[in-house]
Design brief:
Length: 358
């Protein structure tokens, strides 16, 4: 999960092979329908139709915290886990069912504000009245672990509502709708989470610009959940205090992260696993200095290295949540996952980069 305002957008240009630049997040219309990209769907769902939608989780491989200050980041879809949404016609007001609430959308607790906003914005875009739909969203993405649970929930709901209306939304429009909800959840997010959960491919993200990432890596990544909820707000506050008290030092730290992120991009394209792992180790040490890590994360990172990983680091906002470790090869990945679970990881997932190169 990532917070904060993105700086220095105006002087950036899309690199060769990049997608069209995403809009500057603060300038995105409050209602995506205002963006002029609204489709022309059916005016109402067909009787008896139930819309379904699914969205995967995500990991940030490089760029945590630095990304919200205009530095690049690398993110991967985590397809092993996700959230499933349904949207069904019902009489009366909008309803929402999630793991912590079941009732009228208008009475949903404040912590579900991002989903409420996503539902209302999507129905507005689809020219559907704000009534007559029951939305459910359930799945296996753990909350507050830096895996994009809020963005994945919003994405699955957008997909389900579009399916209910018999409408297909393009990737850009889905991103806009998810980002509308993310803004409620996180203030001024960079857009990295929102884009990673709507795309099926690894991405290079910087200041609202997105590029497809070339991945030739053969060694799998292992994601391990520390079991401790992340505390992104306090981590962001700690980094912000360093920026206020010593701007030059903070700039040096962000430059260090940028250097390793750029080098990691080349390593991913050239299948240089040992070098990639070394950059992961270096970034974790920088995040430790920034007070973004915690005892549980450091313990799992140390366990991964002792178990033979090429490298390991925290992923996401920090102070809890998950780590990622780079296995030596496919045979080593389950051994590494087992070692992390024996060391206290609540659960693990293996990402085989081959799924992105096939």
């Amino acid at each position: 999960m990532e917070h904060g305002a993105v700086e220095n957008r105006s002087d950036l240009r899309a690199a060769p092979g990049a997608t069209d630049p995403l809009p500057a997040v603060p300038q995105t219309p409050a209602h995506p329908a205002d963006a002029g990209t609204a489709p022309t769907p059916e005016p109402a769902a067909a009787p008896g139709r139930i819309g379904t939608g699914w969205a995967h989780a995500k990991i940030i491989l490089f760029g945590e915290h630095a990304v919200v200050h205009g530095q690049p980041a690398i993110a991967f879809p985590l397809r092993k886990i996700g959230l499933q949404a349904t949207a069904a016609p019902v009489p009366g007001p909008l309803r929402l069912t999630v793991d912590i609430y079941d009732g009228p959308l208008a009475h949903a607790p404040a912590r579900l504000g991002s989903l409420v906003t996503t539902i209302e914005s999507t129905l507005d875009l689809l020219h559907h009245p704000l009534e007559g739909v029951h939305v459910t969203c359930l799945g296996d993405v753990p909350l507050e672990r830096g895996l994009g649970s809020s963005a994945a929930g919003a994405s699955s709901i957008v997909n389900a509502l579009a399916d209910l209306m018999g409408t297909e939304l393009d990737e850009r429009t889905r991103y806009e709708l998810v980002q509308t909800g993310e803004r409620v959840a996180h203030g001024s997010p960079s857009g990295l989470d929102a884009y990673t959960v709507v795309t099926q491919r690894p991405i290079w993200f910087q200041a609202g610009r997105v590029e497809d990432l070339e991945v030739a890596l053969s060694a799998p990544l292992v994601v391990a959940d520390s079991g401790r909820p992340g505390d992104t707000h306090s981590a962001v506050a700690a980094v912000g205090e360093i920026r206020r008290s010593d701007p030059e030092l903070a700039a040096d730290y962000f430059e260090t992260i940028r250097h390793h992120t750029v080098a990691a991009r080349a390593d991913l394209a050239a299948d240089r696993a040992a070098s990639l792992g070394a950059h992961m180790d270096a970034v974790h040490e920088t995040l430790q200095i920034l007070s973004v890590s915690c005892e549980e994360l450091d313990h799992l990172v140390g366990t991964a290295r002792a178990a033979g990983a090429h490298g390991a680091k925290l992923t996401g906002g920090g102070r809890g949540g998950c780590i990622i470790a780079l296995a030596r090869d496919r045979d080593h990945a389950p051994e590494l996952a087992r070692a992390l679970e024996e060391a206290g990881a609540a659960q693990t997932w293996i990402i085989d980069p081959e799924e992105f190169t096939a």
